[in-house]
C-alpha cells in the first residue's frame, strides 16, 4: 500500500518541472504558468507535486546534519582525511560555523526553494482550479507545506523574510522572529478548516488538520524562545486536538522499531505526518541510514542472502553524553543502537581479517603486515587519535569501530544504491503526548485527567521501560532524547531546555548567538535588504 501511494505522488510530479531557486528573492520558474497550465484534475495534482518534491529534498541529509551534528547527539569525525569535507562536520560539532558554511547554506537554499515552489503552485491553482472543496483543500495543504518550511527556517535562522506572492522579486528584509511566528500562527489557523480530518492512505504524506495542530503545538511549546512569551496553555490545547481525535495511538513494543524500517508507511498508527521516500526516486533518503551505521551492521535479510557484512561509506556516531540517557535495560528503544561485540543474525561473531597495522595504524611491532583477525566491537568513545585539528580518528579498524551507532532508520536490504525506502516521520503521536507533558510541567493547566507523570509513563509503558514515580523537566528532556533520537528534534529541545551552550565531545563554545545559524553570505549578496543575525 505504501509504495503504490508514493509512486502515485512521484508519477504525478513528473508532469511538472522542478523549480530552481537559491534564495527567497530569486525567481522560481518552470514551464507551468497560470496561462498555459493546468486545465484538468491530473494536471491540478501535477501542479501541486513540485512542492512535495521540494519538501523531500534535503530533509534526510543536510537538514539532519544541521539539527543533529550541532548537538551532543552525534559526531561525524574524519577517518584518515576522508569525510573531513573542508571542516564541514567539525564546524557543526564545535559550533564554529560561519555564514559560508556549506550545510548552513544548503538548508537556507532548500527551505527557500520549498517556499518559492509553493508560492508558484498556489499562483497556478488559485488562477486555474475550479472553485470548490477540492481547491480549498489543495490550497490549504500547500500553505501547510510552506508553513512547515517557514517553521524550520524560523527555528534555524530566526529572522527571515516573509514572501507569499509568486512573481514578487523585490528585495525583502528579514522579519523579526516574533513576526514570523505571528505570520505562521495566522496562516496555520486559516488553513485548518479546509484541511482533511481523514487519516489513512488517501492522505498519507499530505498535510491534515493534525499536522496543523502538531505544528502549532511545537510553536507554542517553543514560544518563549521565539517570541519571549510562553504559550503553554495553547500548546496543551493543540495537543489535545490530536489526542482527543482518536485517530492515533502509540505503537506497542512489537512494532516500535518497525516505524522506522524501509517498509514503514500509512500503517504506522503514530505517524501524524511523514515524508514518503522511494528508493527508485532521485535523492530519496540517501546517506541517512548508511551513514548512521557501522560498516559491519547487517540489514534485515542480508545475512540469509549473502552471509556478508553491509558496508556503507561512513558512520555517524553518537557521543557518551547522549547515550547515557538509554539507561533502562528493559527499554525497547535500546535496540535502536549498535553497541559492543557484533554478531550475525545466526549468532556467529562478525569477524574481520586485516593486518596488525590495519587494525591499529599506530602499531609499533616488528610484524605490521602480519594477519590479524578480530571480532568487531563497537566502542563508546570517539577519540581524535590521528589529529585533533583535522577532526580525525584515524583510518584503521579501531577508528571505524569508535562510537555507538543509532540504527533506528535501518538500511534497506532491497535497495541497490544509497537510496532508501524509509519514510521520514516529522510528527508522531508520541511527540503530542510529550509536548503536552512538558507544557503541563512548565505550568500549563492539566486537562482530561492527564498529568505530566501519567503522560510520560504512557510512553514508557509502550516502550517497555520502568514507570517513573515522579517527573521533572530534566526527566522529560531525557525522555525526549530517548524517544526522538535521530529524528531531528534534539537541537530544538536543547535550546528550549537551556543546554545548547553546554560542553560535549570536543565542543566548548558557549555563545548564545549560536542558537540560530547565520544567514548565508550567498543569500546576503542576492538580497541586500537582509540583515545578518547577531554574532555573525
UniProtKB/TrEMBL annotation:
Which cellular compartments is it found in? Answer: Cell outer membrane
Q: RagB/SusD domain spans which residues?
A: 400-536
The domain of life is: Bacteria
Q: Which UniProt keywords apply?
A: Cell outer membrane, Membrane, Signal
User: Any idea where the SusD-like N-terminal domain is?
Assistant: 87-221
Instruction: Name the predominant localization.
Output: membrane
Q: Which InterPro entries match?
A: SusD-like_N (IPR033985), SusD_RagB_dom (IPR012944), TPR-like_helical_dom_sf (IPR011990)
Keyword presence, Membrane? yes
GO cellular component assignments: cell outer membrane
Q: Which family does it belong to?
A: Belongs to the SusD family.
Q: What protein name does the entry list? A: RagB/SusD family nutrient uptake outer membrane protein
The organism encoding this protein is Dyadobacter chenwenxiniae
Q: Lineage of the native species?
A: Bacteria, Pseudomonadati, Bacteroidota, Cytophagia, Cytophagales
